[in-house]
Specification:
Helices cover 83% and strands 0% of the residues. By secondary structure, the protein is an all-alpha fold. The chain has one domain. The radius of gyration is 18 Å and the shape is elongated. Keywords: Membrane, Transmembrane, Transmembrane helix.
């Protein structure tokens, strides 16, 4: 089965968005270990363990809870129909949003050095977002098996 170029580009952008957000998160964790107080055990708990649970929840819950899966699948389908990941402007917009999120998490981690609050919530929120991006990637593949969607995405 061959898909249209638009669908292949969209699906690739879904994958790239999830992968890029993982790389950004990994960089923020490395930065956290060099900046945050409390020692490796505290940092690992706040930057890896609890956010790992948030990532799993962000990934699994939208796929396991049928109403949530329908809503997210509809969002993925509407994103495709609106042209996300299919034009240079939409790709740059997606990358721009990831850059803004990366800047925010980096700023939150760096602000601890000047007496700011410990950024535990930002790690969890960003990890949950990664889980949702990964779920969107999975749902894009599920849409390929939907007869109605196939009419629009096959060549």
């Amino acid at each position: 089965m061959a898909f249209t170029k638009a669908w292949r580009d969209f699906r690739r952008m879904q994958d790239v968005g999830a992968a890029a957000s993982c790389l950004i998160y990994a960089g923020s964790v490395v930065h956290a270990f060099s900046v945050l107080p409390g020692g490796p055990a505290v940092i690992a708990r706040h930057a890896l363990v609890w956010p790992g649970a948030a990532l799993l929840a962000g990934f699994a819950l939208p796929l396991l809870i049928l109403p949530a899966r329908r809503v997210l699948a509809r969002y993925v389908w509407m994103s495709f129909l609106s042209g996300f990941g299919q034009t240079p402007v939409s790709v740059l917009t997606g990358v721009g949003l990831l850059v803004v999120a990366a800047g925010f998490i980096y700023w939150q981690v760096a602000s601890v050095a000047t007496g700011g609050p410990y950024p535990a919530a930002v790690f969890g929120g960003y990890a949950a977002g990664i889980g949702i991006l990964a779920a969107q990637s999975v749902l894009a593949r599920w849409l390929e098996r939907d007869p109605e969607a196939r009419k629009h995405i096959e060549e």
